[in-house]
Write a structure and sequence with these properties.
With about 375 residues, this protein is mainly alpha-helical. The protein contains 13 helices and four strands. It is about 70% helix and about 0% strand. The protein starts with a helix and ends in a 7-residue tail after the last helix.
Length: about 375
């Protein structure tokens, strides 16, 4: 493991320990713990994009689809849990005049089947789409546009009220979060329960990022990871050498989809609602910006970009919400013009600049 990866893993481990201690003792307010958990979910989502873009050179502008699928499956389980505790159907089903949940929601009663669905359903969707695309050798900007179109199509579908996903109003009313009941009417008990749930969810999100970083770095160091790098650098030559790149890209693509879905499943309980807005192509574009700003390849830049940009976004949302899009545009322009590989390239650029300055100083002997 490189020094940068070790430092990143150490900081994540420190946060993993600090969140339960500081959050449970009320040193950190609930909103700060919740913000940290959301940022960790975004970091995990950015890592899933970097796995394909940074390692295999395949840019997806539609990972919001897998993020939303994981979120919707988590919401379905939470609503089934809430119904078992209260006996009250969700508002969107009452609005549609339904007497019960759709039959295909039955799996959501089981937490283990729900976890399996979070991993398997997005991977299955990714497999079908990826097989058709990669087998037809759709690459580059064409693949990116198709992924964006797929996400937009899914958003239009889920906007319909008769699909069983809550329509444009989405799903909310999660009375049980991460196994912690939130049905008390006493304010102090309710506040303590929500704080405990926020700490647990933020800790789980941080643990998922740390696990994905360690597992992803180990995977990229294997022969499979080296082959993904070869696909990024020169896929036709790799095919000429006898490797079937279809299955290599497909395996990475499905793994990337599952990681994005886990991020969505951890994100939705923290915000307490999910709607088709998660499928807005703007979110998928923004994720690509996080990775580009942080730096592609190695997964560290994805974490760095997602954390820095989202912390800045949270701050500007309260201080100057109208400036956010301008700030984001300036960040993109700065990266494109000065740091082609994002913030990870800053150290190399500064070292090169200092070396050039030393060579140009008077009295220095050039080699």
């Amino acid at each position: 493991m490189t020094r940068g990866a070790g430092l990143c893993a150490g900081l994540l481990g420190l946060l993993l320990v600090a969140l339960p201690v500081l959050g449970s003792s009320a040193v950190l307010p609930v909103y700060a713990v919740n913000a940290a958990g959301q940022v960790m979910c975004f970091a995990l989502l950015a890592m899933s994009v970097d796995l394909m873009w940074g390692s295999a050179g395949v840019l997806s502008l539609g990972h919001g689809l897998f993020f939303a699928l994981g979120g919707y499956i988590a919401a379905m389980h939470l609503l089934r849990t809430a119904f078992a505790a209260t006996g009250v159907l969700p508002d969107f089903l009452l609005f549609m005049g339904q007497a019960g949940f759709p039959a295909w929601w039955a799996f959501a009663d089981s937490p283990w089947l729900s976890v399996l669905a979070v991993l398997a359903v997005p991977a299955a969707v990714a497999f079908v789409f990826g097989y058709v695309s990669f087998r037809s050798r759709v690459n580059g900007v064409y693949f990116s546009i198709i992924t964006q179109a797929l996400t937009y199509t899914a958003m239009l579908l889920i906007f319909r009220n008769d699909t069983g996903f809550g329509g444009n109003n989405g799903m909310t009313g999660f009375h049980g979060i991460a196994g912690l009941a939130a049905g008390s009417t006493r304010y102090a008990v309710l506040l303590a329960t929500l704080a405990t749930a926020a700490v647990l969810l933020a800790t789980l999100a941080t643990a998922a990022v740390l696990l994905a970083l360690l597992g992803g770095r180990a995977l990229l160091a294997t022969r499979f990871g080296r082959l993904l790098t070869a696909i990024r650098d020169d896929e036709p030559r790799l095919r000429f050498l006898g490797y079937e790149t279809l299955w290599l890209k497909l395996a990475a693509w499905c793994l990337s989809a599952s990681v994005a879905a886990v991020a969505g499943a951890l994100y939705v309980p923290q915000v307490g609602i999910i709607n088709p807005g998660l499928l807005d192509p703007a979110l998928s574009l923004e994720v690509a910006v996080w990775v580009a700003v942080g730096g592609r390849g190695g997964l560290i830049g994805a974490i760095l970009g997602a954390v820095l940009i989202n912390l800045l976004k949270f701050w500007l949302a309260g201080a100057a919400p109208d400036l956010w899009l301008f700030v984001l545009s300036l960040l993109v322009l700065g990266v494109v013009l000065a740091l082609p590989n994002g913030l990870l390239d800053a150290r190399n650029r500064s070292r090169s600049w200092m070396t050039g300055l030393a060579v140009r100083l008077p009295g220095q002997v050039r080699p």
